[in-house]
Amino acid sequence: MTSATRLILDPALLSRGLDALCKLDRDVAKARARIGDPGLRTRDPGFVTLLDVILGQQLSTASAAAIRARIHALVQPLTPEAYLAAPVEALVKAGLSRQKLAYSRDLAAAALDGRVDFSNLHARDDEHIIEHLVQIKGIGSWTAEIYCLFSLGRPDVWPAEDLALQVALQHLKGLDERPRGKVMRALGDAWKPWRGVGAYFLWHVYHHLTKRVAVPIEPVPRTAPAVDKQAKRLARPPKRSLKRGAKAVGKRVAKKAAAKKTTPTKARPRAKPSAARKVKPGQRSAPRARP
């Protein structure tokens, strides 16, 4: 049962939850014996983590990780104030769509105007946190659930809309179709109060199926890729002001014009007059000579 206090999903709690799931579900027990336990991934609560979840919406894990790395390298320190002050062109160059740019900037504004109170979220229950977060533009139930699971460590949160979880559960249960919507939520109900632990395990199953990392929010690498340098240059203010730049261009134009005036132009040689053709009486012009 979910507590109204912050629950850190540490390795011991994860192992205890998996033990409980194995008693509830024979399929989980068989798969666990075959592939072992999943690794634990957690993120600090606050603006940066929720921003990273938004940046990863509807993207592959690799694409989302690359964009997050660029944003973290571009905006330092990554605070709501600094993010709102970052040039829009630089954020778009880093990989953000116009829609995701609007969502992320609204989150930063909400963190500053009090619409999101990160300092008190951990003291609320799961339902209240999700209802609170989905009021922010661009945050749906999946985004709020991922934040609760990875940042607040809630062991019974069930991100039923996650594609990788659906694929993994279809494989685990031998279903003909990928479970979605009400079916996915109904299947998750059998795992209460350890649905969040079950989600961790299903991402682990998906990794063994596809050899791809499916966890929706990976730690941001400390070293940014080389492409980030271009975004950084775009974010920097120009070394010379537009006024100084215009003066420099004017000087170059004037210098070229002066050089043209002082450089003597060579007179073109006049064409030699052609020999006059002799015209016989009754002819309009002299006949051309045959070769």
What does this structure look like?
With 291 residues, this protein is mainly alpha-helical. The protein has a domain of 141 residues: Hypothetical protein, domain 2 (Endonuclease III, domain 1, Orthogonal Bundle). Helices cover 56% and strands 0% of the residues. Helix 9 packs across helix 10 and helix 11 packs across helix 13. The longest helix has 21 residues. It is globular. The N terminus and C terminus are likely disordered.
Beginning-to-end CA distance, first to last residue? 112 Å
What is the overall shape?
globular
Give a short account of the largest sheet: none
Total strands: the figure is 0
The CATH first-level class of the domain at 43-152 and 225-255 comes to Mainly Alpha
The level of helicity is 55-70%
Number of helices: 15
Strand content: under 5%
Name the CATH homologous superfamily of the domain at 43-152 and 225-255.
Hypothetical protein, domain 2
Could you tell me the mean pLDDT?
Answer: 80
Q: Which structural class best describes the helix and strand composition?
A: mainly alpha
Low-confidence stretches: 1-6, 221-249, 282-291
